[in-house]
Amino acid sequence: MRAAAHYLNNLKLIPILFLFFFCFLLLLIFGSSFQSSLQISSSTPPKNSDFLEEKQSRSCLTTPLSPACTKINPSLAHALVHYATSNITPQQTPKEISVSQRILDKKSPCNFLVFGLGHDSLMWTVLNYGGRTAFLEEDKAWIEQIKQQLPSLESYHVVYDTKVTQAGELLEIGTKEECEVVSDPRFSKCQLALKDLPNEVYDIEWDLIMVDAPTGYHDGAPGRMKAIYTAGLMARNRENGETDVFVHDVDRVVEDKFSKTFLCERYLREEEGKIRHFTIPSHRVGLARPFCP
């Protein structure tokens, strides 16, 4: 999820058009999903600030003319201020963001897993307001840096043991029979499955998965081969329903070939710029379903 600016010192300024688009996007999504998010309950008592915020929000539902109803939600306000004062350009374009935003508009609050932690992470969290958004990041130092700025984000450190130069070999491995067996990635016999992610990642059925990491733009980088395969395996292994999987940077060879091969071209729903959207159904409800239709 990090832009190349994390490695280079030459940072781009956010285009004014993108800022206006993002502000409008957040206001639109917040308005449509806010009421449904209030239905989510927590097993632990809320903090005082959260309780007051929820109390105020609920009162707005019953007394829409109350002055309190005109106040912007603190989470949304924080996101707007963060991006209005940032000089970093998010990795995806407004059109690319709109692809996953439309799905979040329908499904949020939901479970959203993102491979990569970066300048757009707060945006994804707010667009999934009331849901659970978790980030997987390869750079431990980068996690600490982001946590200092945005301590509320849920993120986990992940170690990848591959390199982009191994893509051809891994693509061939993915054609073996064991790689078409649908199971929990932890117990998969396929070498492409990521088996050392935090248990929290495996124990949740994710409604959306975004693959925008690990680093994959040079030969020595880990590449997204295993991330793409594992995202598809998680989607197939859910008990029922379907998972929306997004892959960014499909203009690159690895992202192009691995997304088409392991997320399946028949499951491809949309492509905009450098992002592809796949909708993958559960394969546990139909044991005779082929890995790719």
From TrEMBL:
**Main localization category:** Golgi
Q: Quick check: keyword Membrane in the entry? A: yes
GO CC entries: Golgi membrane
Q: How does it sit in the membrane?
A: Single-pass membrane protein
The cross-references to Pfam families, in alphabetical order and at most eight, read: IRX15_IRX15L_GXM
One GO term of the biological process aspect: xylan biosynthetic process
User: What UniProt keywords apply to this chain's record, in alphabetical order?
Assistant: Membrane, Transmembrane, Transmembrane helix
Is tRNA-binding among this UniProt entry's keywords?
A: no
- Name the InterPro entries for this protein: IRX15/GXM/AGM
Q: Where in the cell is it found?
A: Golgi apparatus membrane
PANTHER family (alphabetical): OS11G0490100 PROTEIN
Designated name of the protein: Glucuronoxylan 4-O-methyltransferase 3
